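Same chain as my last thread, 507 residues:
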Amino acid sequence: MQDILINWTPQETRVAVVENGAVQELHIERALERGLVGNIYAGKVVRVLPGMQSAFIDIGLERAAFLHVADVQVAGVVPRSTFSGGPRGTVGGQRSGDAPPQTPIERLVFEGQTLTVQVIKDPIGTKGARLSTQVSIAGRLLVFLPQDDHIGISQKIGSHELREQLRARMNILAQVPEGSGPQGGFILRTNAEEASDEELADDIRYLRKTWATVRDRSFKSPPGTLLHQDLSLAERVLRDLTHDGTQAVRVDSSLQFESLQKFGREFTPTSVAKLEHYAGERPIFDLFNIDEEIAKALTRRVDLKSGGYLIIDQTEALTTIDVNTGGFVGARNFDDTIFKTNLEAGQAIARQLRLRNLGGIIIIDFIDMTREEHQTAVLAELRKQLARDRTKITVSGFTQLGLVEMTRKRTRESLAHMLCEVCPVCEGRGQVKTPRSVCYDILREILREARQFNPKEFRIVASAAVVEMLLDEESQHLAGLSDFIGKPISLQAEPLGSPEQYDIVLL
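reply #2:
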């Protein structure tokens, strides 16, 4: 059984998925960082550039958006009034459905034309958003292509036999009664691999209903209108995270609660009864110490109840997880101590991967186990805990070096990358030079400068710890250098940005 807590403010939405009193997942969305990709607009062609085979489209943003001929789906570039399924419109003097693949853009669109377009790349710097006329709407399991009629399968879905089975099921589920309008096409996402017919049918209904709303709005809206925006995090909670085992979805904002009720009644009616407005005096995240869990999820060390601990390091290429016994001495012999620590670590690792949203290649260094049955049991426990994850995971088992290799699909930025930035002091190294090392760097630099310049005096500007060491433990070396170069050396302590930072001033 799970509870879902939604903490909403105008600038940020935070969602915690809690199972049996423990936080299992954290999701964060910030208003300023929410992009435009996936948004559908009523756009107006303001300029066609034959030399660039592109067009500028006004979609109501600060800068005109950019549509390249490669992103023009010929059958889809028609006036919006024809989207109801009637005869195709005429574009550039010919029927758009008959246009050859390499038709120049000036024969596909014209200035003043109104198009339904979707953002495929956010604006960057001085460049406007990039658009496509091929609209797609993503659901939990499927992607709907209203202007197509084929069934596609994600390339990451395994065998040819499974792909054909899924395609056959979708051909039946996606059929529409004759005369009820265009059918549209679908692409099965990776997580649809084990979906039931009922789940697929629910997604089909949701996507077609969403598109019907977009199409109806397009008939009535002027150019520059936002017709469809990808779901907010709170809405995706109702669509993707709520299931039969969900006891309650608690929202601490009355405004957001009403909005979710309206969305749920229209698109996810089974989840509406689970919605609750939380109006307690304590912040909603205090109910399960969520903020404390977030703080812990940003640290390297994760303590286990037995006294052991994990060390988690996230790098550019992969994530490493090291298991240690720590102070655990509860078992009768050392083998049992190792085995019990590794078992507990397997449970904790699965939770931390979800909590921190770690993706890509993951290497786990369990404590070495001499007995093969212990290795098998630990691997089985890890796989059992990972099975609860909604993200696609592959576990390769133990290597010859005793490491477990696995992969977890990247779905979004990890928690650390979203909430943190590289330390300006150590620049991401995780360590800085000792004051003594900085002292010796300074002494070498003064010697180098003395050979090139002839000032009256050298002044060292450094951190208080470095200056203190030069006056105390390294004072003899500093005096010896001053005698050797024949110049006085003075010291000045300043609170600099980094303990490694220093300046040598020539006076």
